[in-house]
Amino acid sequence: MTDIVTEAVAEARLDSFSQLNLAPALSRAVAEMGYESMTPIQAQAIPVVLQGRDVMGAAQTGTGKTAAFSLPLLQRMLKHENASTSPARHPVRALVLLPTRELADQVAQAVKSYAKYTQLRSAVVFGGMDMKPQTLELKKGVEVLVATPGRLLDHIEAKTAVLNQVEYVVLDEADRMLDIGFLPDLQRILSYLPKQRTTLLFSATFSPEIKRLANSYLQDPVTIEVARSNATASTVEQHFYSVGDDDKRHALHQILKDRGMKQAFVFVNSKLGCARLARSLEREGLKTTALHGDKSQDERLKALDSFKKGEVDLLVCTDVAARGLDIKDVPAVFNFDVPFNAEDYVHRIGRTGRAGAEGLAVTFVSKSDARLIGDIEKLIKTKIELEAIEFEEDQPKIREQGRINDGRRAWREAGEMGDPRDALDARREQREPRQQQRPIRPAPAPRDPFFDKPYEAPATEAAPSWESSKPAGPRSISANIKPKRKLAALFKSE
Fold it and tell me: What's the confidence (pLDDT) of residue 464?
């Protein structure tokens, strides 16, 4: 029978990290990171994990799930801590699986920060990068391995990752891993692990697929729910504006100006649309970078780093960045395109209003998005009211440039207004008639009528005049032609 921990009971027991009795090394790291009070998921999950129980946790994004499983696992693994340089003394004891490269890198950095004053080692492996540096890191020995499923299988097949001593497994963002087709990979990875282990599964939703996965691989788990399934954070102010496709960039500029916002996520449904929008916003004076699946891993990490440092105003991205990215103090999220999957809306707007902070979520809705908005209404169980937006006269001339995806270039002259094709038509209308512009050509010379007549053969063949003047008779031989000599016949014919 699955145990269920209620939020009210957990909060009555614990509310701060000082009550956990963590090891001094872990407490010191937590204090340096500025954490004092625990979030609901941390208050409920950490004591259960410290007991060695399996956990099936559901919490909205931005609630501190990483610390909820990292700290208790590190606490339990301190008994294996040693200063030996031998790789054999540092086998993989905890495995953390995540769906995306960005999320894996982020969780690995958090684990390293929590374990900085301990002898426990950690490493991260994900695709899109050379395997050799990862292999060298694994050969040194690590206790905590953070990985994406595909790259971990590569290392397992290459025998550079040995998982026969794993004691703890974390499946973070499990719903996302199932959505992108990682279930066969997860099943293969779990088959390499010892049967006796502690398994922690965290997901934004408890869909039927997640429940089946939990029933297959978790043993008598404790179910922890800190928010209604598919609920959005109460600290996020949500707006849905009815905006035409041609006016979306104009509306984005105006909201950023009216609200005085410096940074924001801008979500687009396609990789091509993401790249085009980023280029357009860059030309319009906004510091923008793009984050999508066609970017190399190095480019993606650089884009995130520049956004975190404040060097970039807008991070235009696809849903690859919608899950799990923890960037503090992002004031707003713009859904430039309404997501095709309603659950992605919850994850997108979860990038703002994190850890109790206030945030703004703006969604631009066109006429073709009615069905998608209906799906979101059903999911979040809230009636969505579309708002109109009024544009100011002094806003950048965004609408003049046409739609991003219509494939035409919008070249402009100074002071020219309207669609470029309309401007060309106006120029044509201003021109004089072509008959007045063309010079008068001189009339062509008259043609000889002889050459226009068809050929007619003469009725009788008349002799030439020079022949008719000669007398008829035998043809004379020219004096210049010598006659042939007569020769005697050798044989006389009979």
Answer: 56
